[in-house]
Design goal:
binds ligand LLP, 8-stranded parallel barrel, globular, TIM Barrel, 12 helices, single chain, alpha/beta, 2 domains, Lyase, Ornithine Decarboxylase, Chain A, domain 1, 9-stranded mixed sheet
Length: about 425
Protein backbone atom coordinates (compact mmCIF):
# COMPACT_ATOMS: atom_id res chain seq x y z
CA UNK A 1 0.00 0.00 0.00
CA UNK A 2 1.34 3.44 -0.96
CA UNK A 3 1.11 6.13 1.73
CA UNK A 4 3.10 8.94 0.08
CA UNK A 5 5.32 9.62 -2.96
CA UNK A 6 7.81 6.74 -2.89
CA UNK A 7 6.73 5.36 0.53
CA UNK A 8 4.89 2.02 0.70
CA UNK A 9 4.19 -0.81 3.13
CA UNK A 10 5.80 -4.06 2.09
CA UNK A 11 5.28 -7.04 4.43
CA UNK A 12 3.67 -4.61 6.93
CA UNK A 13 6.82 -2.48 7.17
CA UNK A 14 7.15 1.07 5.84
CA UNK A 15 9.66 1.25 2.99
CA UNK A 16 11.21 4.20 1.19
CA UNK A 17 11.50 2.85 -2.34
CA UNK A 18 12.78 -0.70 -1.74
CA UNK A 19 14.58 0.14 1.47
CA UNK A 20 13.10 -0.73 4.85
CA UNK A 21 12.83 2.41 6.99
CA UNK A 22 13.84 0.49 10.14
CA UNK A 23 17.11 -0.56 8.43
CA UNK A 24 18.01 3.09 7.91
CA UNK A 25 16.93 4.18 11.39
CA UNK A 26 19.02 1.42 12.97
CA UNK A 27 22.09 3.33 11.73
CA UNK A 28 20.94 6.95 11.91
CA UNK A 29 18.70 6.98 14.96
CA UNK A 30 15.72 9.32 15.26
CA UNK A 31 14.44 11.93 14.58
CA UNK A 32 15.29 11.37 10.92
CA UNK A 33 14.15 13.22 7.81
CA UNK A 34 14.00 10.73 4.94
CA UNK A 35 13.46 11.67 1.28
CA UNK A 36 12.78 9.50 -1.76
CA UNK A 37 14.75 11.22 -4.55
CA UNK A 38 13.29 9.05 -7.32
CA UNK A 39 9.84 10.32 -6.30
CA UNK A 40 11.12 13.92 -6.32
CA UNK A 41 12.43 13.41 -9.87
CA UNK A 42 9.04 11.98 -10.93
CA UNK A 43 7.32 15.09 -9.56
CA UNK A 44 9.80 17.30 -11.38
CA UNK A 45 9.11 15.49 -14.67
CA UNK A 46 5.34 15.80 -14.15
CA UNK A 47 5.72 19.52 -13.49
CA UNK A 48 7.89 19.99 -16.58
CA UNK A 49 5.49 17.99 -18.74
CA UNK A 50 2.53 20.10 -17.57
CA UNK A 51 4.14 23.24 -19.00
CA UNK A 52 5.71 21.58 -22.05
CA UNK A 53 3.60 23.58 -24.51
CA UNK A 54 5.34 26.78 -23.33
CA UNK A 55 8.94 27.83 -23.62
CA UNK A 56 9.38 26.99 -19.94
CA UNK A 57 11.96 26.78 -17.18
CA UNK A 58 11.37 25.17 -13.76
CA UNK A 59 13.26 26.80 -10.90
CA UNK A 60 12.87 24.70 -7.73
CA UNK A 61 12.40 26.95 -4.67
CA UNK A 62 15.38 25.89 -2.56
CA UNK A 63 13.78 27.18 0.67
CA UNK A 64 11.43 24.16 0.62
CA UNK A 65 14.26 21.63 0.96
CA UNK A 66 17.96 22.42 1.04
CA UNK A 67 19.39 18.87 1.26
CA UNK A 68 22.42 18.74 -1.03
CA UNK A 69 21.70 15.31 -2.60
CA UNK A 70 18.16 16.45 -3.43
CA UNK A 71 19.46 19.62 -5.08
CA UNK A 72 22.11 17.54 -6.88
CA UNK A 73 19.67 15.16 -8.56
CA UNK A 74 17.41 18.04 -9.58
CA UNK A 75 20.37 19.96 -11.03
CA UNK A 76 21.55 16.86 -12.90
CA UNK A 77 18.04 16.50 -14.36
CA UNK A 78 18.29 20.04 -15.76
CA UNK A 79 16.15 21.76 -13.15
CA UNK A 80 16.86 25.41 -12.31
CA UNK A 81 16.62 26.94 -8.84
CA UNK A 82 15.01 29.90 -7.15
CA UNK A 83 17.16 31.08 -4.26
CA UNK A 84 16.25 33.52 -1.53
CA UNK A 85 19.68 34.38 -0.18
CA UNK A 86 23.36 33.93 -0.84
CA UNK A 87 23.19 30.95 1.52
CA UNK A 88 20.70 29.17 -0.71
CA UNK A 89 22.77 30.22 -3.74
CA UNK A 90 25.85 28.68 -2.09
CA UNK A 91 23.99 25.39 -1.59
CA UNK A 92 22.64 25.34 -5.14
CA UNK A 93 26.12 25.96 -6.58
CA UNK A 94 27.62 23.25 -4.33
CA UNK A 95 25.00 20.92 -5.79
CA UNK A 96 26.19 21.65 -9.32
CA UNK A 97 23.45 24.08 -10.39
CA UNK A 98 23.85 25.99 -13.64
CA UNK A 99 23.75 29.68 -12.61
CA UNK A 100 22.11 30.51 -15.93
CA UNK A 101 19.10 28.62 -14.58
CA UNK A 102 18.99 30.38 -11.20
CA UNK A 103 16.69 33.20 -10.15
CA UNK A 104 17.20 35.10 -6.89
CA UNK A 105 14.03 36.31 -5.17
CA UNK A 106 13.52 37.91 -1.75
CA UNK A 107 12.03 41.06 -0.34
CA UNK A 108 15.16 42.12 1.54
CA UNK A 109 18.19 41.21 -0.53
CA UNK A 110 21.37 42.69 0.88
CA UNK A 111 24.32 44.11 -1.08
CA UNK A 112 26.15 40.86 -0.26
CA UNK A 113 23.27 38.75 -1.67
CA UNK A 114 23.16 40.77 -4.88
CA UNK A 115 26.95 40.77 -5.28
CA UNK A 116 27.08 36.99 -4.75
CA UNK A 117 24.37 36.50 -7.39
CA UNK A 118 26.09 38.68 -9.97
CA UNK A 119 29.51 37.16 -9.28
CA UNK A 120 28.09 33.64 -9.70
CA UNK A 121 26.45 34.59 -13.02
CA UNK A 122 22.87 34.14 -11.78
CA UNK A 123 20.45 34.61 -14.69
CA UNK A 124 17.80 36.78 -13.08
CA UNK A 125 17.21 38.86 -9.98
CA UNK A 126 13.55 39.28 -9.07
CA UNK A 127 13.42 42.73 -7.49
CA UNK A 128 10.73 44.05 -5.20
CA UNK A 129 11.32 47.76 -4.51
CA UNK A 130 12.72 50.95 -6.03
CA UNK A 131 15.44 50.90 -3.39
CA UNK A 132 16.47 47.39 -4.45
CA UNK A 133 16.50 48.44 -8.15
CA UNK A 134 19.00 51.19 -7.32
CA UNK A 135 21.15 48.79 -5.30
CA UNK A 136 21.15 46.14 -8.04
CA UNK A 137 22.05 48.76 -10.64
CA UNK A 138 24.90 50.10 -8.46
CA UNK A 139 26.34 46.67 -7.69
CA UNK A 140 26.16 45.68 -11.38
CA UNK A 141 27.76 48.94 -12.51
CA UNK A 142 30.65 48.41 -10.07
CA UNK A 143 31.27 45.19 -12.01
CA UNK A 144 30.83 46.78 -15.43
CA UNK A 145 27.79 44.55 -15.89
CA UNK A 146 24.10 44.92 -16.64
CA UNK A 147 21.83 42.74 -14.47
CA UNK A 148 18.71 41.19 -15.97
CA UNK A 149 15.85 41.69 -13.53
CA UNK A 150 12.21 40.71 -13.26
CA UNK A 151 10.09 43.25 -11.39
CA UNK A 152 7.98 41.34 -8.88
CA UNK A 153 4.36 42.34 -9.30
CA UNK A 154 1.95 42.36 -6.37
CA UNK A 155 -1.26 41.80 -8.36
CA UNK A 156 -3.53 42.11 -5.30
CA UNK A 157 -5.05 38.66 -5.74
CA UNK A 158 -6.66 36.67 -2.94
CA UNK A 159 -5.77 33.03 -2.42
CA UNK A 160 -7.48 30.28 -0.43
CA UNK A 161 -4.47 29.54 1.75
CA UNK A 162 -3.33 30.20 5.34
CA UNK A 163 -2.86 33.97 5.88
CA UNK A 164 0.78 33.48 6.93
CA UNK A 165 1.66 32.03 3.52
CA UNK A 166 -0.45 34.28 1.29
CA UNK A 167 1.77 36.85 -0.43
CA UNK A 168 -0.04 38.44 -3.39
CA UNK A 169 -2.41 40.93 -1.76
CA UNK A 170 -1.85 44.69 -1.66
CA UNK A 171 -1.33 44.74 2.14
CA UNK A 172 1.56 42.25 1.95
CA UNK A 173 5.18 43.35 2.00
CA UNK A 174 5.90 41.49 -1.24
CA UNK A 175 6.25 42.88 -4.74
CA UNK A 176 5.40 46.18 -6.40
CA UNK A 177 1.99 47.57 -7.32
CA UNK A 178 1.17 48.01 -11.03
CA UNK A 179 1.61 51.79 -10.56
CA UNK A 180 5.05 51.37 -8.96
CA UNK A 181 6.13 49.09 -11.81
CA UNK A 182 5.04 51.66 -14.39
CA UNK A 183 7.01 54.43 -12.71
CA UNK A 184 10.09 52.21 -12.33
CA UNK A 185 9.92 51.31 -16.03
CA UNK A 186 9.65 55.01 -16.88
CA UNK A 187 12.87 55.62 -14.90
CA UNK A 188 14.72 52.59 -16.28
CA UNK A 189 17.09 54.83 -18.27
CA UNK A 190 18.41 56.17 -14.92
CA UNK A 191 19.35 52.69 -13.80
CA UNK A 192 22.18 51.84 -16.21
CA UNK A 193 23.19 48.63 -14.42
CA UNK A 194 19.83 47.00 -14.86
CA UNK A 195 17.66 45.67 -17.68
CA UNK A 196 13.99 44.87 -17.10
CA UNK A 197 13.65 41.43 -18.69
CA UNK A 198 10.10 40.75 -17.53
CA UNK A 199 7.76 40.44 -14.57
CA UNK A 200 7.39 37.91 -11.78
CA UNK A 201 4.79 37.18 -9.13
CA UNK A 202 4.36 34.70 -6.30
CA UNK A 203 0.84 34.64 -4.92
CA UNK A 204 1.31 32.42 -1.90
CA UNK A 205 1.87 28.82 -0.97
CA UNK A 206 -0.36 25.73 -0.76
CA UNK A 207 -2.81 27.19 -3.30
CA UNK A 208 -5.42 24.64 -4.36
CA UNK A 209 -7.23 26.49 -7.17
CA UNK A 210 -5.79 27.60 -10.53
CA UNK A 211 -7.94 30.74 -10.56
CA UNK A 212 -5.59 33.06 -8.60
CA UNK A 213 -2.91 32.29 -11.22
CA UNK A 214 -5.32 33.34 -13.98
CA UNK A 215 -6.16 36.58 -12.15
CA UNK A 216 -2.49 37.30 -11.48
CA UNK A 217 -1.48 36.64 -15.09
CA UNK A 218 -4.26 38.87 -16.29
CA UNK A 219 -2.92 41.80 -14.24
CA UNK A 220 0.63 40.92 -15.30
CA UNK A 221 -0.17 41.07 -19.02
CA UNK A 222 -1.82 44.44 -18.61
CA UNK A 223 1.22 45.84 -16.81
CA UNK A 224 3.56 44.31 -19.41
CA UNK A 225 1.63 45.96 -22.22
CA UNK A 226 1.84 49.30 -20.38
CA UNK A 227 5.58 49.18 -19.79
CA UNK A 228 6.81 47.64 -23.05
CA UNK A 229 6.75 50.96 -24.98
CA UNK A 230 8.83 52.56 -22.18
CA UNK A 231 11.71 50.08 -22.47
CA UNK A 232 14.57 49.76 -24.99
CA UNK A 233 14.02 46.02 -25.31
CA UNK A 234 10.65 44.29 -25.00
CA UNK A 235 10.44 42.22 -21.79
CA UNK A 236 10.22 38.54 -22.69
CA UNK A 237 10.05 36.60 -19.38
CA UNK A 238 7.02 35.85 -17.22
CA UNK A 239 7.58 34.18 -13.85
CA UNK A 240 4.39 32.98 -12.13
CA UNK A 241 6.15 31.80 -8.93
CA UNK A 242 5.34 28.65 -7.00
CA UNK A 243 2.50 27.82 -4.63
CA UNK A 244 1.14 24.61 -6.18
CA UNK A 245 -0.74 22.96 -3.30
CA UNK A 246 -0.23 19.34 -2.26
CA UNK A 247 -2.33 16.74 -0.45
CA UNK A 248 -1.61 16.77 3.30
CA UNK A 249 -4.45 14.48 4.30
CA UNK A 250 -7.25 12.48 2.76
CA UNK A 251 -9.71 15.39 3.08
CA UNK A 252 -7.79 17.64 0.73
CA UNK A 253 -6.95 17.58 -2.95
CA UNK A 254 -3.86 18.95 -4.62
CA UNK A 255 -3.35 21.47 -7.40
CA UNK A 256 -2.39 19.66 -10.58
CA UNK A 257 0.07 21.87 -12.51
CA UNK A 258 -1.78 20.85 -15.69
CA UNK A 259 -4.70 22.94 -14.45
CA UNK A 260 -2.46 25.96 -13.97
CA UNK A 261 -0.95 25.47 -17.44
CA UNK A 262 -4.48 25.33 -18.87
CA UNK A 263 -5.55 28.64 -17.30
CA UNK A 264 -2.25 30.20 -18.42
CA UNK A 265 -2.99 29.15 -22.01
CA UNK A 266 -6.52 30.49 -21.62
CA UNK A 267 -5.43 33.92 -20.41
CA UNK A 268 -2.68 34.17 -23.02
CA UNK A 269 -5.30 33.35 -25.68
CA UNK A 270 -3.93 33.84 -29.17
CA UNK A 271 -1.20 36.30 -28.18
CA UNK A 272 2.00 35.12 -29.79
CA UNK A 273 4.57 37.05 -27.73
CA UNK A 274 7.86 35.10 -27.55
CA UNK A 275 7.77 34.74 -23.77
CA UNK A 276 9.67 32.32 -21.63
CA UNK A 277 7.57 31.13 -18.70
CA UNK A 278 9.26 30.42 -15.36
CA UNK A 279 7.66 28.48 -12.50
CA UNK A 280 9.16 28.24 -9.00
CA UNK A 281 7.61 25.14 -7.41
CA UNK A 282 8.91 24.22 -3.98
CA UNK A 283 6.45 22.17 -1.94
CA UNK A 284 4.84 20.36 -4.89
CA UNK A 285 8.11 18.66 -5.89
CA UNK A 286 9.21 17.53 -2.43
CA UNK A 287 6.52 17.61 0.30
CA UNK A 288 5.09 14.14 -0.20
CA UNK A 289 8.44 12.55 -1.01
CA UNK A 290 9.68 13.16 2.53
CA UNK A 291 8.79 11.87 6.01
CA UNK A 292 9.99 12.61 9.51
CA UNK A 293 10.65 9.33 11.32
CA UNK A 294 10.42 9.66 15.08
CA UNK A 295 10.33 7.33 18.07
CA UNK A 296 7.78 7.22 20.86
CA UNK A 297 9.63 8.52 23.90
CA UNK A 298 6.79 8.05 26.40
CA UNK A 299 3.15 7.05 26.50
CA UNK A 300 1.48 9.22 29.13
CA UNK A 301 -2.11 8.52 30.11
CA UNK A 302 -3.82 11.44 31.83
CA UNK A 303 -7.34 11.94 33.12
CA UNK A 304 -9.19 12.34 29.83
CA UNK A 305 -6.60 11.59 27.15
CA UNK A 306 -3.37 9.78 26.41
CA UNK A 307 -0.33 11.68 25.24
CA UNK A 308 2.10 10.10 22.84
CA UNK A 309 5.34 11.98 23.44
CA UNK A 310 7.67 11.72 20.44
CA UNK A 311 11.39 12.39 20.19
CA UNK A 312 10.69 14.93 17.39
CA UNK A 313 9.32 18.30 18.34
CA UNK A 314 8.29 21.66 16.95
CA UNK A 315 11.96 22.56 16.56
CA UNK A 316 12.23 19.71 14.02
CA UNK A 317 8.87 20.27 12.26
CA UNK A 318 7.47 23.73 12.92
CA UNK A 319 4.50 23.68 10.54
CA UNK A 320 1.80 22.38 12.95
CA UNK A 321 2.78 24.93 15.64
CA UNK A 322 3.10 27.84 13.21
CA UNK A 323 0.26 27.25 10.74
CA UNK A 324 -1.92 24.67 12.54
CA UNK A 325 -0.86 22.38 9.67
CA UNK A 326 -1.89 18.75 9.93
CA UNK A 327 0.49 15.98 8.87
CA UNK A 328 -0.76 12.41 8.67
CA UNK A 329 1.03 10.09 11.09
CA UNK A 330 1.54 6.39 10.40
CA UNK A 331 3.25 3.55 12.27
CA UNK A 332 6.50 2.38 10.71
CA UNK A 333 5.47 -1.23 11.49
CA UNK A 334 1.82 -2.06 10.88
CA UNK A 335 0.34 -3.97 13.78
CA UNK A 336 -2.82 -5.78 14.78
CA UNK A 337 -2.93 -3.94 18.11
CA UNK A 338 -6.16 -2.20 19.11
CA UNK A 339 -6.55 1.33 17.84
CA UNK A 340 -6.27 4.05 20.47
CA UNK A 341 -6.78 7.81 20.40
CA UNK A 342 -3.70 9.89 21.19
CA UNK A 343 -2.70 13.50 21.52
CA UNK A 344 0.60 13.34 19.66
CA UNK A 345 3.13 15.83 20.97
CA UNK A 346 6.83 16.65 21.00
CA UNK A 347 9.22 17.11 23.95
CA UNK A 348 9.56 20.91 23.66
CA UNK A 349 8.38 23.15 26.49
CA UNK A 350 5.49 24.75 24.60
CA UNK A 351 1.85 23.68 24.42
CA UNK A 352 1.92 24.43 20.68
CA UNK A 353 4.39 21.55 20.34
CA UNK A 354 1.46 19.36 19.28
CA UNK A 355 1.31 17.37 16.05
CA UNK A 356 -2.22 15.96 16.35
CA UNK A 357 -5.12 15.76 18.79
CA UNK A 358 -7.39 12.72 19.21
CA UNK A 359 -5.46 10.83 16.55
CA UNK A 360 -6.15 7.15 15.95
CA UNK A 361 -3.13 4.84 15.88
CA UNK A 362 -2.64 1.18 16.78
CA UNK A 363 -1.63 1.04 20.43
CA UNK A 364 1.93 2.37 20.83
CA UNK A 365 4.71 1.63 23.27
CA UNK A 366 7.91 3.40 24.22
CA UNK A 367 10.44 2.85 21.41
CA UNK A 368 7.88 2.31 18.62
CA UNK A 369 8.51 4.27 15.45
CA UNK A 370 6.02 6.50 13.64
CA UNK A 371 6.40 8.62 10.50
CA UNK A 372 4.99 12.10 10.02
CA UNK A 373 4.09 12.30 6.34
CA UNK A 374 4.37 15.18 3.85
CA UNK A 375 7.43 16.46 5.70
CA UNK A 376 9.68 16.89 2.66
CA UNK A 377 8.87 20.59 2.25
CA UNK A 378 9.55 23.25 4.89
CA UNK A 379 10.45 20.57 7.41
CA UNK A 380 14.23 20.35 7.88
CA UNK A 381 14.68 23.71 6.15
CA UNK A 382 12.69 25.44 8.93
CA UNK A 383 14.15 23.45 11.82
CA UNK A 384 15.87 25.13 14.74
CA UNK A 385 17.81 24.11 17.82
CA UNK A 386 15.20 25.49 20.26
CA UNK A 387 15.56 23.88 23.70
CA UNK A 388 19.16 23.20 22.53
CA UNK A 389 17.97 20.19 20.62
CA UNK A 390 20.47 19.25 17.89
CA UNK A 391 19.27 19.34 14.28
CA UNK A 392 17.91 15.98 13.09
CA UNK A 393 19.74 13.68 10.69
CA UNK A 394 18.66 13.61 7.04
CA UNK A 395 18.89 10.67 4.64
CA UNK A 396 17.85 9.98 1.07
CA UNK A 397 16.97 6.93 -0.96
CA UNK A 398 18.08 7.11 -4.58
CA UNK A 399 18.03 4.31 -7.12
CA UNK A 400 17.44 1.63 -4.49
CA UNK A 401 20.13 2.72 -2.02
CA UNK A 402 20.10 4.95 1.00
CA UNK A 403 22.67 7.63 1.78
CA UNK A 404 23.17 9.89 4.75
CA UNK A 405 22.54 13.49 3.62
CA UNK A 406 23.31 15.18 6.93
CA UNK A 407 24.56 13.63 10.12
CA UNK A 408 22.75 14.41 13.33
CA UNK A 409 24.21 17.60 14.78
CA UNK A 410 26.45 16.87 17.75
CA UNK A 411 26.24 18.86 20.98
CA UNK A 412 29.74 20.23 20.30
CA UNK A 413 28.65 21.33 16.80
CA UNK A 414 25.66 23.04 18.31
CA UNK A 415 27.81 25.41 20.37
CA UNK A 416 30.60 25.85 17.78
CA UNK A 417 31.39 29.54 17.35
CA UNK A 418 30.08 30.48 20.79
CA UNK A 419 32.44 32.12 23.28
CA UNK A 420 32.03 31.47 27.01
CA UNK A 421 33.62 33.99 29.36
CA UNK A 422 36.86 32.87 30.97
CA UNK A 423 35.74 33.13 34.60
N1 LIG B 1 8.83 31.49 -5.05
C1 LIG B 1 8.84 32.42 -4.07
C2 LIG B 1 9.23 33.79 -4.38
C3 LIG B 1 8.48 32.05 -2.76
O1 LIG B 1 8.51 32.96 -1.80
C4 LIG B 1 8.12 30.71 -2.49
C5 LIG B 1 7.73 30.30 -1.13
C6 LIG B 1 8.13 29.78 -3.56
C7 LIG B 1 8.48 30.21 -4.83
C8 LIG B 1 7.76 28.33 -3.37
O2 LIG B 1 6.46 28.17 -2.95
P1 LIG B 1 5.81 26.69 -2.86
O3 LIG B 1 5.75 26.15 -4.27
O4 LIG B 1 6.70 25.89 -2.02
O5 LIG B 1 4.49 26.92 -2.26
N2 LIG B 1 6.89 27.75 5.28
C9 LIG B 1 5.60 27.72 4.63
C10 LIG B 1 5.67 28.05 3.17
C11 LIG B 1 6.33 29.40 2.90
C12 LIG B 1 6.53 29.65 1.44
C13 LIG B 1 7.42 30.83 1.21
N3 LIG B 1 7.67 31.10 -0.15
C14 LIG B 1 4.96 26.35 4.89
O6 LIG B 1 5.57 25.50 5.54
O7 LIG B 1 3.83 26.10 4.48
Amino acid sequence: MTVADGFTYIDRELHCGDVRVTDIVRETGTPLYLYNLDAVLDRYEQHRAAFASFSHRTCFAVKANTALPLLQVLAAAGCGFDVNSRGELFRAMKAGADPRRITMTGVGKSRADIAAALDAGVALLNVESASECRLVSDVAEERGAVADVLLRLNPDVETDTHPYISTGEAAHKFGLSPGDIRSLAAQAAWLPGLRIAGLSMHLGSQILSPLPYAHGLHVMLKVLDDITPLLDRAPDIIDIGGGFGVRYDVCHGELDPIKVAAVMADVLGDRDDPWTLITEPGRSLVANAGVLVTAVEHVKPSEDRTFLILDAGMNDLLRPALYQASHSIVPVRESEADVQLYDIVGPVCESSDTFAVNYALPSQERGDLVALLSAGAYGASMASTYNSRPLAAEAVVYKGEWHLARERQSLEDMIRGEFPLSL
